[in-house]
């Protein structure tokens, strides 16, 4: 299946941060449906946080895997156009490197080993320096230049010597003088460039030169060849004239002598463009190599490639607030939004399919879409959807519950072959079994953040069927919330401990104005020592969030 979807454009379907059962089950169910309705794309269910104990129970009950974890939807290097510039061997000549660059129309060549591990980089600027700024006549030997490079660069033929050896000592000498003068400036191990003069060739060999280069394709006598062999002197014959040889010989040096191998700036395919953009702006390099997860070279990118980066496609379910969305949502291409909450702060560049209905659960909307498209709902998917509806509506007790939610749940329960009442008891019990959870894990199990009139409001909620368990949780959460409020960038924190059976909620309130605003939001409710009891309040979405926002607006107006 993975191979089948490999070449299809991917679309992530994800709920909000700190996902609840609706967020996870809706992502899984809608991905299943979209893959049927649109086989040209691959829809991937994702989650923007850890799976809580209630949702884990549901997934286990219906043998479903957790969605893929997605903490950041920002574009990555793999979303850019990576130029597949081939790596070259470190022994190729500067001339050959230049020819490859010209053919590929690139400014940087990666130097790699046989296993594609990056060894260095050479640029046009490096090549220019090697040609324009090098005046050392011994540079060819210092570069340990292979004779094979010399033969290719000078279009030569080695008639004496080992073509697989290298020129490793001495300087390059142009023998333009007579033998008497040559003896004064030819040293042992030098490379001597000369013509067809017998005396000059003989002199170079007797002075123990390591190599002589005979220009213009001039024939070399058998006597000179034998003498060269006896003295360990190589002979290369080239059709080029002396001027051309002098001009080209430095271009035979291997690229390893000029390549940059220290402090290379490389990126991985999984790196986020937002992070590499800053690094690229600080460096004066034109191109940057890309490595795979095993550290092997795969291609190059430049700053220009950032302009054409492909945004990642995403569908949001169960939220439309930017504060609740996966990180870097602004850099993604939002295709659809399915939600049942108030309209939030999320903005899109292009028009999107936005379905927002005043029902108790996103899963209800997805069930309707299955019906509208006449797609049968499998037992596993029906189990996920009915679990989400039961969870979000607190088994139809929440004021957010509508007739549409009840109808959908009844239909889905038959397909899933469950009894809503007994199944809900098991699911809620699994969700409220928090003995082994830390206060931080409990706090973030179902936590959402809202922005109101410049205030940051965080609201978490835990549901339980046992008041005793809620009382124990309150004792554990109070010190944690006091400490959390001091550390987090939140102006207000309200944590809901909701009793499903009694349909009431204990509110733990922290923040400078929180007590005042909670009392304004719920007439008759008193906050004492940061704790309040709110009878008949069970829904964060329909009862708590709207009431707190209205209260903030009223108190802010009173201050004007």
User: Structural class of the secondary structure composition?
Assistant: alpha/beta
Compute the average pLDDT: 90
Main β-sheet, spatial strand arrangement? 3-2-1-16-17-18
Q: Report the β-strand fraction as a percent range.
A: 15-25%
Number of strands: 23
Largest sheet: 6 strands, parallel
Count of helices? 19
**Multimeric status of the protein:** single chain
The radius of gyration over CA amounts to 37 Å
CATH class annotation of the largest domain: Alpha Beta
Task: Summarize the amount of helix as a percent range.
Answer: 25-40%
The name of the CATH topology of the largest domain is: inorganic pyrophosphatase (n-terminal core)
End-to-end CA span: 61 Å
- C-alpha geometry: elongated
User: What is the architecture of the largest domain at the second tier of CATH?
Assistant: Alpha-Beta Complex
Domain count? 3
CATH superfamily of the largest domain: inorganic pyrophosphatase (n-terminal core)
User: Which runs of at least 5 residues are low in confidence (pLDDT < 50)?
Assistant: none
Can you describe what's shown?
- The chain contains 19 helices and 23 strands.
- With 560 residues, it is α/β, with parallel strands linked by helices.
- It has three domains: 10-75 and 312-431, inorganic pyrophosphatase (n-terminal core), CATH 3.90.1640; 94-257, HprK N-terminal domain-like (Udp-n-acetylmuramoylalanyl-d-glutamate--2,6- Diaminopimelate Ligase, Chain: A, domain 1), CATH 3.40.1390.20; 439-559, Diaminopimelate Epimerase, Chain A, domain 1, CATH 3.10.310.20.
- It has a six-stranded parallel β-sheet with strand order 3-2-1-16-17-18. A five-stranded mixed β-sheet has the order 7-12-11-10-9, sandwiched between helices.
- Helix 1 packs parallel to helix 12, helix 16 crosses helix 17 and helix 18 crosses helix 19 (540-559).
């Amino acid at each position: 299946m993975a191979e089948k979807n490999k070449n299809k454009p991917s679309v992530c379907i994800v709920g909000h941060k700190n996902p609840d059962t609706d967020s996870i089950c809706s992502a899984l169910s809608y991905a299943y449906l979209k893959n049927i309705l649109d086989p040209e794309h691959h829809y991937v269910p994702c989650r923007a946080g850890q799976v809580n104990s209630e949702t884990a129970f549901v997934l286990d009950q219906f043998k479903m895997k957790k969605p893929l974890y997605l903490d950041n939807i920002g574009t990555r290097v793999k979303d850019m156009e990576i130029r597949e510039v081939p790596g070259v061997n470190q022994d190729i000549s500067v001339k050959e490197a230049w020819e490859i660059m010209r053919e590929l129309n690139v400014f940087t060549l990666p130097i790699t080993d046989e296993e594609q591990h990056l060894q260095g980089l050479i640029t046009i600027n490096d090549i220019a320096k090697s040609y324009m700024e090098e005046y050392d006549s011994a540079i060819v030997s210092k570069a340990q230049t292979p004779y094979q490079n010399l033969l290719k660069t000078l279009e030569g033929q080695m008639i004496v010597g080992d073509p697989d050896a290298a020129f490793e000592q001495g300087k390059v000498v142009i023998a333009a003088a007579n033998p008497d003068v040559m003896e004064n400036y030819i040293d042992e191990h030098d490379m001597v460039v000369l013509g067809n003069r017998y005396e000059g060739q003989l002199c170079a060999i007797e002075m123990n030169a390591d190599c002589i280069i005979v220009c213009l394709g001039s024939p070399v006598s058998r006597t000179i060849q034998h003498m060269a062999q006896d003295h360990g002197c190589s002979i290369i014959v080239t059709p080029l004239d002396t001027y051309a040889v002098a001009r080209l010989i430095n271009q035979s040096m291997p690229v390893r002598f000029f390549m940059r191998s220290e402090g290379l700036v490389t990126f991985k395919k999984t790196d986020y463009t937002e992070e590499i953009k800053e690094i690229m702006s600080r460096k004066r390099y034109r191109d940057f190599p890309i490595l795979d997860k095993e550290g092997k070279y795969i291609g190059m990118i430049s700053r220009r490639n950032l302009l054409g980066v492909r945004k990642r496609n995403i569908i949001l379910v169960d939220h439309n607030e930017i504060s609740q969305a996966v990180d870097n949502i602004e850099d993604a291409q939002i295709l659809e939004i399915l939600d049942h909450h108030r309209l939030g702060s999320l903005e899109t560049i292009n028009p999107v399919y936005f379905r927002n209905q005043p029902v108790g659960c996103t899963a209800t909307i997805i069930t309707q879409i299955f019906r509208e498209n006449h797609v049968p709902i499998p037992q596993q998917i029906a189990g996920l959807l009915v679990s989400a509806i039961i969870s979000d509506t607190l088994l139809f007790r929440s004021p957010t519950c509508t007739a549409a939610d009840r109808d959908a749940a009844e239909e889905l329960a038959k397909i899933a072959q469950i009894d809503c009442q007994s199944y809900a008891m098991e699911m809620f019990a699994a969700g409220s079994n928090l003995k082994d959870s830390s206060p931080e894990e409990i706090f973030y199990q179902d936590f959402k953040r809202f922005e109101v009139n410049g205030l940051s409001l965080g609201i978490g909620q835990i549901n339980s069927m046992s008041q005793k368990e809620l009382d124990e949780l309150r004792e554990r959460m109070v010190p944690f919330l006091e400490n959390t409020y001091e550390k987090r960038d939140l102006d207000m924190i309200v944590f809901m401990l909701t009793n499903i059976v009694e349909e009431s909620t204990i509110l733990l309130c922290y923040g400078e104005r929180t007590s005042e605003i909670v009392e304004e939001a719920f007439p008759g409710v008193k906050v004492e020592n940061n704790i309040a009891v709110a009878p008949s309040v069970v829904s964060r979405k329909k009862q708590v969030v709207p009431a707190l926002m209205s209260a903030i607006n009223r108190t802010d107006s009173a201050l004007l």
